[in-house]
Design goal:
Elements: H1 12-17, H2 23-38, E1 49-51, E2 60-62, H3 65-72, H4 82-91, E3 99-105, E4 109-114, H5 116-129, E5 142-146, H6 158-176, E6 180-185, H7 193-204, H8 213-216, H9 219-232, H10 234-248, H11 252-276, E7 281-282, H12 285-288, H13 292-301, E8 305-308, E9 311-314, E10 323-326, H14 334-347, E11 353-359, H15 363-375, E12 388-394, E13 397-398, H16 416-433, H17 436-439, H18 442-462, E14 470-471, H19 474-477, H20 485-502, H21 506-512, H22 520-530, H23 532-541, H24 545-565, H25 574-594
Parallel strand pairs: 5-6, 5-11, 6-7, 11-12, 13-14
Antiparallel strand pairs: 1-2, 2-4, 3-4, 8-9, 9-10
Helix pairs in contact: 2-4, 3-4, 5-22, 5-25, 7-9, 7-10, 7-11, 9-10, 10-11, 14-15, 16-18, 20-25, 22-24, 22-25, 23-24, 24-25
The structure holds arginine.
């Protein structure tokens, strides 16, 4: 990121204020100014500031000296090697209350020690102005997150569950960063399978109008039965093929039957979304269908489309097979729809960042149509410049048997709703074993069981690097030890109870009290709190929710260390320490919120 000193009229202080809460950027602004003073002629250099590795003195490090040296050494510079460049960067650093001291190490690394007073003040400010002042600033206004996206009448499987959970978190992180997010459910509601589904519906329920969800029962088995008939009965097959044509031609009776089938699927999907508290707006494949011809025409006029074995395709460098955009029978496919949806999102919806979530198996599809879009000039060549597209691929969900996750009833896939219900039931059992049914009202018990159960499923998925496969294991995810949602939710509840037990009015304390970070454990906790904004920003930029999970886990570890050494209630430092507890609880809750997990306050 460049802080473009083209705007010399803005003072360093004003610029830094725009990044309240983001330590890294505030330091980058200072170093950028120093860079300008150190090497006035070098305008294209990007400042690199990073949190220091453990064991290195200082909190942050500026790593520019070496690369800067290699740029200037041939140009008759006054400096004698990287350490001198580092020293100059240090000398020219504008004075700032955030910096306590600096030193140069090795080949010109500038180590920065932050001022503990300034850190304490920043935490006080957050306590008064709210955690939203720590939200990252991203260079986009509107984004599309294309996630969940199951297929009508087919099963919504654990892959879709992963897509839903990861997609929701990414959407939440962008929303927190003040990006308007269009949460798109790109359901598979178009295609040849609808011919057989509609025809089968007509045969089974001649009176289509009065067909209810209960009459059809399970859409998946309905799909299977119609598929069997399609494969076994040539007459039926022919009718089904005609049905597709009539549907696509807009015949109202066929459209109505199609709408009915979609409606039933939608109700089924909604039960999963409702449990997960995930909001999505459906714009299925059918939505883009009317726009496909004009988009194909645009690509054609740009000379991208060629004929190949009767189909129309786009040849792309680096791919062995071309991208088919019109099938040999003239029909459109997954790729034609995705190219058109991309066109629509860029041009009609004015999205600057479009993010797709599916399993990694679909990666070639995405990379191919992204490439076609670049070729058409819709997207810049570099993939980190905006408008930007990303395929966020994720690994498989495995069972304990190391095979793809399935239910006990071998071949049958897990019904997602049952899976979530089981997580809740198990967490309720654990609470009852701990006697909570006697302490709490039935509502409290139920709400906690739900927050913990669903939270556990989500966290178990999000904490892994998404590209790896992960093993679905109830016992592991519901354990109260280790890096689990249960452990973290309990840690948060414990902090809340420390504050409650103090008997102090915490809101009053926020106005009058001061935070002090005098002891190493207090300071370490404070520093970790202050790294929240840059962590969320990193998680957004790299589309990695596990970065935020790791941050949250580390935060609870820092807190535990602090709390195991320092007394809070009844100590002379009580006010300051209670404020640190409160700040930790606030940041933890924000993390839970971004991960789609409901916090609990009592355990
Ligand atoms: N319906 C697809 C599936 O279940 C996922 C769609 C993902 N989104 C997209 N724009 N292709 O595999």
């Amino acid at each position: 990121r460049r802080f473009a000193f083209a705007t010399k009229s803005k003072s360093v202080a004003t610029m830094a204020a725009e990044y309240t809460g983001n330590l890294k950027h505030q330091l980058e602004i200072l170093f950028d100014e120093s860079l300008r003073l150190t090497v006035p002629d070098e305008t294209g250099v990007e400042i690199k500031v990073a949190a220091s590795q453990p064991g290195i003195p200082g909190d942050y490090q500026c790593n520019n000296a070496m690369s800067l040296w290699s740029i200037i050494k041939g140009k008759g510079t006054q400096f004698r090697g990287p350490p001198a460049v580092g020293q100059a960067l240090l000398n020219n650093l504008p004075t700032s209350e955030m910096v306590e001291s600096c030193s140069v190490a090795g080949p010109g690394f500038v180590n920065v020690v932050l001022s503990s007073n300034w850190m304490a003040k920043s935490i006080e400010n957050m306590l008064i102005d709210g955690i939203d002042t720590w939200a990252p600033t991203l260079p986009v206004k509107r984004a599309v997150v294309d996630f969940s996206s199951p297929n009508i009448a087919k099963e919504m499987h654990v892959g879709h569950l992963r897509s839903t959970i990861i997609g929701d978190t990414l959407a939440r992180m962008l929303e927190y960063s003040k990006v308007e997010v269009l949460r798109r459910n790109h359901v598979g509601d178009w295609g040849t399978q609808f011919g057989m589904l509609i025809e089968y519906l007509f045969e089974e329920f001649p009176d289509t109008d009065s067909v209810t969800e209960t009459a059809i029962g399970d859409l998946q088995s309905f799909y299977k039965k119609s598929k069997r008939k399609f494969d076994d009965d040539p007459d039926f097959k022919e009718k089904a093929q005609k049905a597709v044509v009539r549907l696509q031609g807009g015949d109202p009776i066929y459209r109505k039957a199609w709408a009915k089938i979609c409606e039933i699927s939608r109700t089924e999907f909604a039960t999963v979304y409702q449990r997960l508290r995930v909001e999505l707006e459906e714009k299925g494949e059918s939505f883009y269908n009317p726009y496909i011809p004009q988009v194909i025409e645009e690509l054609n006029s740009k000379g991208l489309i060629e004929e190949s074995e009767g189909a129309r395709v786009i040849f792309l460098e680096g791919f062995k097979i071309p991208l088919m955009v019109v099938k040999s029978d003239g029909g459109f496919n997954y790729a034609s729809t995705d190219l058109t949806a991309l066109w629509y999102r860029l041009n009609e919806e004015k999205a600057e960042w479009i993010i797709y979530l599916t399993d990694v198996g679909q990666q070639p599809h995405f990379h191919m149509f992204f490439k076609a879009a670049r070729k058409a000039g819709w997207l810049p060549d570099s993939d980190k410049t905006y408008p930007r597209v990303d395929h966020v691929g994720f690994g498989l969900v495995m069972g304990d048997d190391r095979k793809r996750f399935r239910t006990r009833a071998a071949a049958d896939v897990v019904r997602l709703v049952d899976l979530l219900d089981e997580a809740k039931t198990r967490s309720k059992t654990a609470l009852v074993e701990r006697g909570k049914d006697k302490e709490w009202t039935p509502e409290e018990l139920d709400q906690t069981a739900e927050a913990v159960g669903y939270g556990a499923v989500k966290y178990a998925d999000l904490k892994n690097n998404r590209s790896t496969n992960y093993t679905f294991n109830f016992d592991q995810m519901l354990s109260d030890k280790g890096n689990t949602a249960v452990y973290l939710l309990y840690a948060h509840a414990r902090i809340c109870s420390i504050i409650r037990k103090s008997g102090k009015d915490i809101d009053e304390l926020k106005k009058t009290g001061n935070v002090a970070l005098d002891h190493p454990e207090e300071r370490a906790l404070g520093l970790h709190l202050l790294r929240f904004a840059e962590t969320v920003e990193e998680a957004c930029n790299n589309l990695l929710p596990n970065v935020l999970c790791q941050y949250l886990y580390d935060l609870s570890e820092r807190f535990t260390t602090f709390y195991s050494i320092h007394q809070v209630n009844g100590s002379p430092e009580e006010a300051s320490r209670l404020l640190l507890c409160e700040a930790t609880a606030i940041v933890m809750r924000k993390c839970f919120h971004l991960l789609g997990i409901t916090p609990v306050y009592k355990i």
